[in-house]
Amino acid sequence: MSAADTAIAEAPAEPVPLAPEAIAELEAAPPQAAPAAQVAERTLPFDVDHLGLLRRSVLDHLLDTEGPQSVAQIVASMPPGTTRGSAESAIKREYDAGRIERVGAGLYVLGKPKPPNQPKPAPPDPVHNDQWFAWLDEWKASDQWKGPGNPPGQAGCLVPMDIISKFNDRVRKREQRRKEADEAAAKRAAADAELRARLLATCNGNYLPGPGLDDMTPIKAILELVPVDYILYAIRQKVDKRCFPGNPPLASWRDPKFLRAVADNYCGGVVIPSMVAAWEAAGKASASKTHESSQPAGDMPDDIDELRSHHDNPHAPPGPHSLPKPPAASAAPGVTGKGPGRSVCVAFE
């Protein structure tokens, strides 16, 4: 035997690469059952019954060795005929599955077992908008936040942005309404003060200051129906000593004598004349209409054009369509010269 033949015989035989079909069969083939003693010594903390031979070999090597293992060490532990590409593919798939961990450049260890799947906590019930607004209103009033998270303007605020925007708009409108109400109340107070000063000036000093004259409620109730001139006229009658020296001082706008004087003046100046005028005019319109419709046929013009010209004549007597209205009732108290503009005073017992 020659030296060349001797060298060839002593050279180790290189592993023959497997065909891709053979590699797929190795990965899909279930692993052979290990002896019972070996199973008792080592146990993988994963469910590996569904894995192929190459992926299971990666886990077995890391389980049987101590410390991190390099890719070359893992590839060397693979079954004979396994290519490096197939081994690295098995390593990567186990790494993606989380059953092995990378602890350094090209160094792997067996992964830690994952805790059993625990049910996810149910999401909290959505907060109703009214509840958000209630928390925001209370926070605005007391500066104490009782809702989840932190109040608006701070880190960790859980209030939705649309709720904050709507709340700010509500606060703005609320402040605007309060401002308008305050302005209206101030105008009413100024008007009441002006009216009170005018009424007290009519008393000509014959009044007793106090809460009875500060309360303008009776005057406001009177003004809903009666003009202020009738109130002034009643004050001259029942309070002003220039009209009657025996008038007592006015102590309250609720004085029955004063209220009766206002009612008598208004009824005598407006209500009673209106009733009399209405009763006096009752039946006049129907009688005039009946008279016009009962005109004798001989008095009617024969020519219809003449009739129409008579109807359109502005100087013709009024027909049923243009009857004069009854005279309006006088609006001044006292149709016999006892109005508020007169200086005549009448004292009522």
**Number of strand elements:** 3
- The sequence of SSEs as H and E is HHHHEHHEEHHHHHHHH
Supply the number of helical segments. 14
The portion of residues forming beta strands comes to under 5%
Which shape, going by the Cα principal axes?
Answer: rod-shaped
Write the layout of secondary structure elements.
Blueprint lengths: L2 H8 L9 H9 L7 H6 L11 H12 L4 E2 H6 L7 H14 L2 E5 L2 E4 L18 H14 L18 H42 L8 H4 L2 H7 L4 H11 L17 H26 L2 H10 L10 H9 L37
Helix pairs in contact: 4-6, 11-12
Summarize the structure in words:
By secondary structure, this protein is mainly α. It has 3 domains: 14-110, Arc Repressor Mutant, subunit A (Orthogonal Bundle); 129-189; 203-282 and 327-349, no CATH class. It contains 14 helices and 3 strands. It has helices at residues 3-10, 20-28, 36-41, 53-64, 71-76, 84-97, 129-142, 161-202, 211-214, 217-223, 228-238, 256-281, 284-293, 304-312, and strands at residues 69-70, 100-104, 107-110. Strands 1-3-2 form a 3-stranded antiparallel β-sheet. Strand 2 (100-104) and strand 3 (107-110) form a beta hairpin. Helix 11 packs across helix 12 (256-281). The radius of gyration is 56 Å and the shape is rod-shaped. The model is unreliable at 1-13, 33-41 and 318-344 (pLDDT under 50).
